[in-house]
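We treat protein structure as text, and this decision shapes the records that our systems exchange. The tokens are whole numbers drawn from a learned vocabulary of local backbone shapes. Below, we set out a record of this kind in full and without editing:
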Amino acid sequence: MLSHASRPAQPASHQSRQCVWQLRFWTRVVLHVKINISSGASFHARLRFAFMIHRLSPVIVSRSRSAVFAAALILLLGCNHLTPAQTEDAFGDAAADPVKLFERGQTAHAHGDLLKALEFYEEAIRVRPEFSEAEFQRGNALVALGRLAEAESALRRAIEIRRDWSLPYSALGALLVRLNRDAEAESFLRQAVTFDAQSNLALRMLADVRLRAGDAREALELARRATNDKEAPVSTWLLRAMAERATNDNAGALTSLEHVLQADPVNLSALFERAEIRIATGDNERAITDLQAAEPLIKGDRASLSRLAADYKLAGKPQEAHRGAESAGLNAAGQDSAKGTLKVSGSPEEIAAANSDDPIAARKALEELLVKNRPPFCAK
């Protein structure tokens, strides 16, 4: 007999526990019979069975063994009303279950076995073509494998299947930024933020796009929103610092850079940014300390060596500047090192201003050249 809702639950009797076990056993027997379920109805069938079991079990625990079998038989008879098609074991461990395949893909993905994960995702999609989560994870695995064209197709397919889900928009936007297709990326990133205003990846990548487009104010607003996330990565704080610096908020930039360098003391970009702010404010001694910390981290990267040389020159260290320029291949063979000249991208007017005898004008011009010659920001 069912207890009144207001009464405390009573411990299950041995007979009740035995009946529950029997219900589970016969239900599993029924569900392992070959049943007719179309690919479109399989997920709905799962829910139907689950609700039927849930509704029948309170009554059955107080009945006889024959009632347990009868309940299982009811479930079996219910299968006859499903749409015809041939799919085995919609609830078990058979290879034709798209959810099971997806879960196995997730497990392989988590263990770093990307190729195996990809196999499971693709098999799940073959069984259920409208499986947006599997397409999304397939795209992520393909990005990790460096198969970017295929990844783009998978992420676009995930969006096509489910147009109101922010994650594939964010992932596709980030991929397009990586491919230097900022105009396309911006559209997807803005859509991602529309669906999820707190999407850290979308906010961060959109801030990067806007900063490189010259809109430092919007970039800063987006970066601040991204850093409201307590788990925001250091790359988000670095991007915020760059936007703060671009809007002449050097104090805010130094605070953000301190956040980065506390978490990652050997972050090369943060060391460069802080050194350049310190040079701009006349704190050459501490700027040189930052540059000395940055130098061993460069390891032959020409763009970074060029930036190092320019920063050393700004800080009043021509010999160190020449050493960096030579390492980057910026000085012609046999060039007089005393002049410490560097090859940078810029108009004749910009380069002339950078070589001005007026230290304030020269510093401003050199800072502008540094921005122009700075490599694109890459979020990790």
Remarks:
- Residues 278 and 286 are 7 Å apart (CA to CA).
- The first helix runs from residue 14 to 31.
